[in-house]
């Protein structure tokens, strides 16, 4: 298998597998893999396309609720969000 993309994929036996490392839609949304098969007499090459799905960051530690006293008037931290990937902001 060849590609100009510097791909994190490999052919193992008769399977295309993703090797180690994360894919990032914002960096590269599509990988074109040129797969070549041979039977010692003839050779065939075809292109296999891998499309990376864009998914938003996951909030990994959001409690389901917080309790506040009714007289609470000052600003109070309720929770700190932990995200699975970098995010510029949460709203």
TrEMBL record:
Name the record gives this protein: Cadherin domain-containing protein
Organism: Dreissena polymorpha
Lineage per the UniProt record: Eukaryota, Metazoa, Spiralia, Lophotrochozoa, Mollusca
